[in-house]
Automatic annotation (TrEMBL):
InterPro entries: Rossmann-like_a/b/a_fold (IPR014729), Universal_stress_UspA (IPR006015), UspA (IPR006016)
Pfam family, one: Usp
Sequence ranges assigned to domain UspA in this UniProt record: 1-137
Coiled coil regions in record: none
Identification of the protein by name: UspA domain protein
Organism whose genome encodes this protein: Halorubrum saccharovorum DSM 1137
Record-linked Gene3D superfamilies: HUPs
Family statement drawn from the similarity comment of this UniProt entry: Belongs to the universal stress protein A family.
């Protein structure tokens, strides 16, 4: 039913806690997992004049995807990795529409003003993705 599963990650503890669910789905469907890290270039602190350099964030993304790649390979799951730049929810939904048939991702369960101010990448993905989204609620 699902041959290609997208596992977007930011390297957080929430992502690490979500990984077993991606593994479970991949093993159940004999699917390949796509590990995607998106460098958020829409954040005001990134790029020219910002405190964060896109190249250093890309390098961080490469490290994160390599770590998850190894964890998946250790569980005999076929995996591909990718680091993209842009708006995270847009890149995730675009990648999913082009490459995969399911998304497995965590949500931190923010609420109130924090959710309003920060938004939720997962919530935006759930509302706009063309493929099913399996969400895993993790503690903040």
């Amino acid at each position: 039913m699902y041959d290609e599963i997208l596992f977007p990650t930011d390297g957080s503890e929430a992502s690490k806690r979500t990984l077993p669910h991606a593994v479970s789905q991949a093993q159940a469907f004999d699917a390949r997992v796509h590990v995607l890290y998106v460098v958020n270039t829409t954040y005001a602190g990134v790029g020219a004049g910002g405190s964060k350099n896109v190249n250093s964030l890309r390098a961080e993304g490469e490290e994160v995807t390599e770590e998850f790649e190894q964890r998946l390979r250790d569980r005999d799951v076929d995996v591909v990795t990718r680091v993209e730049e842009g708006d995270p929810h847009a890149k995730i939904t675009e990648y999913a529409a082009d490459e995969t048939d399911m998304i497995v991702m965590g949500t931190r369960g923010r609420s109130g003003i924090e959710k309003y101010l920060l938004g939720s990448v997962t919530e935006k993905v759930v509302r706009t993705a063309d493929v099913p989204v399996f969400t895993v609620r993790t503690p903040e």
